[in-house]
Amino acid sequence: MLGWTPISSARTIEQIAAIALLHDLTMVTRNIDNFAGCGVRLPNPFQGR
Q1: Burial, 36: exposed, middle or buried (Cβ in 10 Å; 0-12, 13-18, 19+)?
Q2: Confidence at residue 31, expressed as pLDDT on a 0 to 100 scale
Q3: pTM of the predicted model as reported, rounded to 2 decimal places
Q4: What's the CA gap between 37 and 48, in Å, rounded?
Q5: pLDDT, tens digit (0-9, with 9 covering 90-100), for 24-42
Q6: Distance, CA of 37 to CA of 49 (rounded, Å)
Q7: What's the whole-number average pLDDT of the chain?
Q8: How many Cα atoms sit within 13 Å of 1 on the Cβ side?
Q9: Would you list the DSSP string of 1-49?
Q10: How many angstroms separate the first and last alpha carbons of the chain?
Q11: What residues contact residue 9 under an 8 Å CB cut-off, 6+ apart?
Q12: CB-based contact 27:16 (threshold 8 Å)
């Protein structure tokens, strides 16, 4: 069973951002602050809810 795990490690956040950049992916997350400034596209579909 898959579960949700919060990302707290700065190293993990950097690795996810690097993978997204390498593969030209868009990050979709509620936690925009962790990925801001990494250079990845960060639309926030949860904004305003």
Answers
A1: exposed
A2: 82
A3: 0.70
A4: 22
A5: 999 888 888 888 888 999 9
A6: 23
A7: 83
A8: 2
A9: ---------HHHHHHHHHHHHHTT-B---S-HHHHTTSS-B---TTTT-
A10: 28
A11: none
A12: yes
Exposure string of 8-32, with b = 16+ CB inside 10 Å and e = fewer, is: eeeeebeebbeebeeeeeebebeee
CB distance 40 to 19 below 8 Å: no
Assigned token pair, 27: 């990050």
User: Which are the contacts of 45, defined by CB distance < 8 A and separation ≥ 6?
Assistant: 28
CA distance 31 to 47: 11
